Amino acid sequence: MCHLMRALLVPSMQAVQALLPRLSQGDPAHKMAVAEAIRDAMAFAARASKGFSSQTKMASCGCVEPFLEALDVFLPALQCNEKGDPRSIVHAGVRQFLHRMVVCLDEEIFPCIPVAIRHLVTNCTEPRDLYEFVPLISQMVSKFKGKVAGYLKGVFVSVVTTIWAVLSQQSDPSDSLLIQDLKLLRRAYYQFIASLFNYAATEIIFDQDRETIFRVLLTLIEGTLDCSDTNSQKTCFGVLRKVISTPGMVPKQYEEDMNQFLFKHLIPAAFSAPSKPEFDLNDAQNILTLGEAALCLKAVHARCGPSMLDFLRNSYFPSFNMPPALVNEFLNDLVTDAKVFKSRFKEFFKKLR
Questions:
Q1: What confidence score (pLDDT) does residue 317 get?
Q2: pLDDT tier at 269 (50, 70, 90 boundaries)?
Q3: What pLDDT is attached to residue 351?
Q4: Residue 216, Cβ density class (10 Å: 0-12 exposed, 13-18 middle, ≥19 buried)
Q5: Contacts of 73 (CB under 8 A, 6+ apart)
Q6: CA distance 58 to 79
Q7: Residues 6 or more apart from 279 whose CB is under 8 A from it?
Q8: Could you tell me the pTM of the whole model?
Q9: pLDDT by residue (tens digit) across 112-121?
Q10: Cα–Cα distances in Å, from 295 out to 98, 198, 238, 303?
Q11: Host H or E run for residue 295
Q12: Of the candidates 32, 42, 127, 190, which lies 20 to 30 Å from 346 by C-alpha distance?
């Protein structure tokens, strides 16, 4: 079976090897044609993998080796220096093949992951290329969970710093396509971070240095305040709640930094987001977000106890000249059952309005 599959894949590999040097030659139309031919050759190899799945593994049929050989040939295509559409087309072909390999292979693909990711993020400045790439990493995490952490730790900083750089670029308000691409990239980023928490791979974040850890957490705070994307708001509050409530998740040497983060950033965000005029307290998705914000505050109270109550009573609420009666009512509600508090948290904001 192995030699038959290799015979099927070899023409695709040979085509990619022959076409890659020609990608930098000729006029734009020629470059586009070459890029599309490279993509199609990879797509043929990807379609050849359709006979396998997460249930019918390549290993059981002895076909792992030919597909790994194809992957070794296709990955260098990510180093193409062409800009714009030809580069995007070639990258799309590699991504499609990688998606299939994640489905069909097991740990055999692990050594290829850092190489692929480094190539995909190098010189990547287009939001669309990034938001189409990030789900590939999330797919790896969802399938392999903590097993893949060791291979992703070393490239995590490259991935997130590239995303942050693209998201921080100035954009033309009249460029609706770019604005949409940036929104989709931001959402893909939050989903990627959430996947690390959902699939027991948080060490990818918390084994990084202090600056990276808290930069990631601050981006989640930014997400909680973005009322234009209610799904991401809820996701960000949910991830932050897991950070607070999971013992030992934050390295011990950063415990005090974490407490400061909670008081300086998280608590204000839990009140600021629902206070925004565009936050509709009657909208179903916003109610879910409000519930996550309430559970975040409950988690902070469980962690910090009386110091949180003192902060709210003596520092935070007085800065807004909140009536003492409303302050006392809120603090009494905070120490009640979580389900009760979620309901009263909504009523609290109705009273503020």
A1: 94
A2: very high
A3: 84
A4: buried
A5: 13, 16, 17
A6: 28
A7: 227, 273, 286
A8: 0.91
A9: 889 888 888 8
A10: 38, 17, 8, 12
A11: helix 284-304
A12: 190
> What are the start-end ranges of the E strands in 143-265?
none
Instruction: Break the chain down into helix, strand, coil percent, rounded to 5.
Output: 80, 0, 20
- Asked if residue 51 has pLDDT above 90, the reply is no
Give the pLDDT band of residue 141 (cuts 50, 70, 90). very high
Q: How far apart are CA 171 and CA 258, in angstroms?
A: 33
Number of Cβ within 10 Å of residue 177's Cβ equals 9
CB of 229 closer than 8 Å to CB of 186? yes
CA-based nearest residue to 264, from 298, 302, 214, 299: 214
State CA 39 to chain mean position distance: 26
Mean pLDDT in residue range 6-35: 91
Tell me the pLDDT band of 256, cut-offs 50, 70 and 90. Answer: very high
DSSP E strands: which ranges in the chain?
none
Contact 100, 43 (CB under 8 A): no
The residue type found at 58 is M
Work out whether the CA dihedral 129, 149, 94, 61 comes out positive or negative. Answer: negative
Question: Side chain identity at 10, as an amino acid letter?
Answer: V
